[in-house]
Amino acid sequence: MVSSVKMPRPSIETTDMLIGALLRVPAQAIHRRIVNELNAAGFEQLRVPHMAVLQFPGPDGVRPGMLAERAGMSKQAMNQLLRSLEALGYIVRSDAPNQRRARIVRLTKRGHAAYAKIHDILRDIEREWSAELGPRDFAQLKELLSRVWESPLAR
User: Is residue 64 a contact partner of residue 88, using CB atoms and an 8 Å limit?
Assistant: First the structure.
């Protein structure tokens, strides 16, 4: 396991934090952990911005415009990330079958390996969070976040 660098926290009471910060701060910590462990596992070139492409449900078979929409970024910014990942050997872009001028993204063998490693890292994180919060509270956290995910609140 890779030790993570603890970021200094400002002296703010979590009771004063709004939902955006309560969701963002752990998500950012997870992204940093994923990248640190990917780098240690031999995927040295991957950086936090690449997670916009490699995040669930993954880019395989998806058009760049859909990836941009999922990530909440412009098509131009997404295409820059895709160019980077393509140059590093994680993805290839090809013509979409039966669609004029449309392109789709495919993971390469190296991309599939990195995506599988991300899944392993996230399973480790879930085990750690469950141990920290207790299995019941962690299950409740996941249930509540799943309800938000499936609701109009997350659209």
Answer: no
**Per-residue pLDDT tens for 99-131?**
777 899 999 999 999 999 999 999 999 999 999
User: How far is Cα 2 from Cα 63, in angstroms, rounded to an integer?
Assistant: 34
Beta-bridge partners for 107: 91
CA distances from 15 to 21, 75, 129, 134 (A): 11, 37, 20, 21
Q: CB count, 10 Å around CB of 129?
A: 16
Indicate the CATH number for domain 18-154.
1.10.10.10
Q: Distance (Å, rounded) from C-alpha 152 to C-alpha 154?
A: 5
Q: Which amino acid is at 90?
A: Y
| Cα 76 to Cα 68: distance, rounded to the nearest angstrom | 8
Q: List, for residues 66-82, the tens digit of each pLDDT value.
A: 999 999 999 999 999 99
Half-sphere exposure of 76 (CA within 13 A, CB side): 0
| Cβ neighbours around 75 below 10 Å, total | 15
Region class of 4: left (phi > 0), else alpha (psi between -120 and 50), else beta: beta
By CB atoms closer than 10 A (0-12, 13-18, 19+), residue 20 is: exposed
Q: Report which of 119, 135, 136 is spatially closest to residue 127, judged by C-alpha positions.
A: 135
